[in-house]
Amino acid sequence: MVAALFHAIWNAAVKSGNDPLLSITDINVATFLIALPLVPVVGLPHPDSWPFLITSAVLHFGYYLALSEAYKYGDFSQAYPIARGTAPVIVTLWGTLVLAETLSAVELVSLAGVLSGLLIFTSQTFPRVMRDRKALVAALVTSIFIGGYTLADGVGGRLSQNIPGYMVWLYLLDGIPVLIYAVCRRGLHEVAGIRHDWKLMFAGAGFAFVSYALVVWAMSRAPIPLVSALRETSIVIAALIGAFYFKESSSQRRITASVVIFSSVALLALGGSG
Predict the structure, then answer these.
(1) CA angle 201-205-210, nearest 5°?
(2) Separation CA 241–CA 90 (nearest Å)
């Protein structure tokens, strides 16, 4: 749940910039700089996790590019719910079919409730998004990358035997490709001449780092589909950010979706305590 809050905040930081690609580049460079001095402290993850770590870095690169396109063409309250809301479905299907994850009856009901709430959010924005095919396609492609790297890191984190080391090396591998791509697309002069608020970017990088580290840690101790679905409660927070910070439209459906999602989380907590 903390990861969900942090994730919505750093995505809002990306959306607040004039160019989403450059904003994502800023945050990736900042996370690289945060991770670099931590290498001697955290050490290396287990060798068995490296194939998953590298796979995740590749998928994250695709995710960043697709996300920048989604925020370029769509509103925050459009792109975020579709990208995040469809990802748990992908993770659930692959997690149960490929990784043979098992969920209890209470967990299944909770997962279904969370996904239902996410679908309410998504259905609210679909009529608008259908008028902008580029935003729709970019958001759906983003969700595919999210599902892919979530599974890779769920397995890689478990094999790493060192979640801090796994995360530090993931962010080191993430930083360089995005920077190179941004230079190729925007030019060295434009990238070097970025005048964004670096305090905001480093804050966004810190939120991104902690957010995903919490998710990978949680996936090493709980079923991957369940963690993925709970993380996407960030849609509720993103709806509030979209309404009050970006001044985007809101409706009764968002309230309904929030009630459904948090009721499902409460059911999960009660089931776990029993």
Answers:
(1) 150
(2) 26
Domain ranges of the chain: 2-273
The C-alpha angle 203, 206, 207, rounded to 5 degrees, equals 90
Q: What does DSSP assign to residue 222?
A: S
Can you give the pTM of this predicted structure? 0.83
Give the separation between CA 122 and CA 138, rounded to whole angstroms: 14
d(CA 6, CA 25): 18
Q: CA nearest 166: which of 37, 46, 59?
A: 46
The 10s digit of each residue's pLDDT in 95-136 is: 677 767 677 787 788 778 877 877 776 665 556 655 667 888
Q: At what angle do helices 76-97 and 105-130 cross, to 10 degrees?
A: 140
Distance CA 274, CA 272 (A): 5
With H, G, I as helix, E, B as strand and everything else as coil, classify residue 102.
coil
Q: What is the distance between the alpha carbons of residues 73 and 169, in angstroms, rounded to a whole number? A: 32
- C-alpha to C-alpha distance for 80 and 182, rounded to whole angstroms: 22
In whole angstroms, how far apart are CA 83 and each of 8, 79, 86, 98, 112? 12, 6, 6, 22, 18
Neighbours of 263 (CB within 10 A): 14
**Contact 121/254 with Cβ under 8 angstroms?**
yes
Q: How far apart, in whole angstroms, are the C-alpha atoms of residue 69 and residue 74?
A: 8
How far apart (Å, rounded) are the C-alpha atoms in residues 7 and 251? 23
Cα 84 from chain centre = 7
Among the listed residues 203, 205, 152, 159, the one whose alpha carbon sits nearest the alpha carbon of residue 49:
159
